[in-house]
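Folding problem:
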Amino acid sequence: MQKFGAWQDDFYAKGAYNETSRYPFTFAELEQRAENAMNPLIFGYVRGGAGDETTQGRNVAGLRAYGLVPRTLRDRANRDLSTELLGRRLQAPIFICPVGVLGAVYPKGDLEIAQMCADLGIAGMYSTLSEATIEEIAEARGDSLGIFQLYPSSDRELTDSFVRRAEAAGFDGLAVTLDAGSLGYRPRDLSHGFTPMRRGTCLANYTSDPRFLELAGVTSKDDLGALRAGRVWSTLFSDPHFTWDNVAHIREMTSLPIVLKGICDPEDARRAKDAGVDVIACSNHGGRQANGGIPAIEHLAAIVDAVDGLPVTFDSGIRDGVDILRAVALGATAVGIGRPYVYGLAIGGREGAAHVVRALLAEADLTMAIDCYAKLSELAVIRVPGY
């Protein structure tokens, strides 16, 4: 069992000699530092949500409506934060969420994050939108658990190609994103007329795919300029016709375990289980796709009950280590980290992102120690009165 909390000891030891960390320890400072480091358009893209961002804010606030129940006088010298996902034992109940602009946030950012997952031995979910290809990501992640996140295209042959490539590259699972049948309404990006992919950025998986090149009317990506690639991508990215029949098709064509990402309704969760899905991902895309929803965490317990034993992951609004414990206490097998690690990447590449992940795990571990929880199954939360 790894003692994640021991990570903080080195900072106090160095502090005795007036040496302090080059990286921050709170989300607020992370975001501020990242804004200073990033291209304003890319920062707005990462920071932004749908509409007036009410749902994005609710995701964060909703997690804080749950308080851990402290226990006392129990042996907590050794804490076990491990969990099992897709047949693999993970040392911590987290995974890195797919973010489609890592290569625009930091040079070779997609590979930096895959290598960070290999270094730390944590799970990663990797986006269809990337400056590195499926195959390059698969190699960079080493032996760490890797899941390829699929955006179903309006061209089924292109979707099928991505599935086949992910399987051939050796990914451990396939996460099919369900809440991207169209691009969300994002005022921050609209004010700049900006989406990175429309300008040809983070399209390596498309421009390296023979089917995409065929649809673009070229034989080589060398014949495909950035703006033309972005224009073709914009006609193919989302599939508003994607239904349960398409899920059945993907289930039939691949032996990879399937994660359905973006389920918030118990009936949809039960139907997914009946369809042979291996994992349910309770998520509202961090509030980036649709505004007007309730906090994603409010869906979690009902989803877990509905699927009766099928693993359920959670993401949307995680900001610190206590949030991880809150989601696990409500039934999540593993919890996805998004903006925090992206901000760490922005200010320090792989090292900065690793600092953020270690900080989250240290806080989770130390909180368990103080509240006398020795293992994740013991965690208990209640609603904060009057929250």
Notes: The mean pLDDT is 97. The longest helix spans residues 339-370. The domain at 26-382 is CATH 3.20.20.70 (TIM Barrel). The longest strand covers residues 146-150.
